[in-house]
Design goal:
Number of domains: 1
Helix content: 40-55%
Largest sheet: 5 strands, mixed
Structural class: alpha/beta
Number of strands: 5
Shape: globular
Strand order of the largest sheet: 2-1-3-5-4
Radius of gyration: 15 Å
CATH class: Alpha Beta
Length: 188
């Protein structure tokens, strides 16, 4: 299961999460590790796009979090990849930002479901900061081992050297630019 922040422009129009530019990159990263979009469940912390694509407000997160927790109970994933700060902070219950916890699996229990929470950068981060693409690839490379045997297997798994992929594979459409999670907040 992958959890992002909120629907972006294209997601809001189509009613499907991650269909814009960041979604295309997510699909490419999944394909690189032998998975398809159909094999994963994708959700967001917020269920509707905030006005002006601003960061979610605490009251909005609180209003929507029950729906996300219900999705976790229904899907019963083994691994939840939190994409970016908002999903990571909500599901980990910690104020630590994504840069401090990225790529480190943590066991968490949501109701009757215990999962490996695996915080990673949001794919949009790599669209705006191309150097992050290698970090995303490294984190995705750990997912098969995490799915197969839990946190210890993922941490022990060798990290293949990142492969450079042309950004044209995830190029933005000529129309309105992709705005989902464009206002990423990083802690350095």
């Amino acid at each position: 299961m992958f959890v992002g922040e909120a629907p972006g422009f294209h997601e809001d129009k189509q009613g499907i999460p991650f269909v814009g530019q960041a979604g295309r990159l997510l699909e490419t990263l999944l394909e690189e590790i032998g998975l398809s979009r159909e094999q994963v469940y994708i959700a967001n912390v917020l269920k509707c796009r905030p006005p002006g694509n601003r960061d979610p407000l605490p009251a909005e997160i609180e209003s929507c979090q029950g729906y996300l927790y219900d999705q976790i109970q229904l899907i019963r994933p083994r691994v939840i990849c939190t994409l970016g700060n908002f999903a990571t902070k909500l599901l980990s219950g910690s104020p630590l930002g994504i840069t401090r916890v990225r790529g480190r699996a943590q066991e968490h229990t949501f109701g009757a479901v215990t999962v490996q929470l695996f915080p990673i950068y949001h794919p949009a981060a790599a669209l705006y900061t191309p150097a992050m693409l290698d970090m995303l690839r490294s984190d995705f490379a750990a997912l098969p081992a995490l799915l197969a045997g839990g946190r210890a297997a993922a941490e022990a798994a060798p990290q293949p050297a990142p492969q450079a992929a042309p950004m044209s594979a995830v190029a933005a459409p000529a129309s309105e630019p992709e705005l989902d999670d464009a206002q990423l907040t990083f802690q350095f």
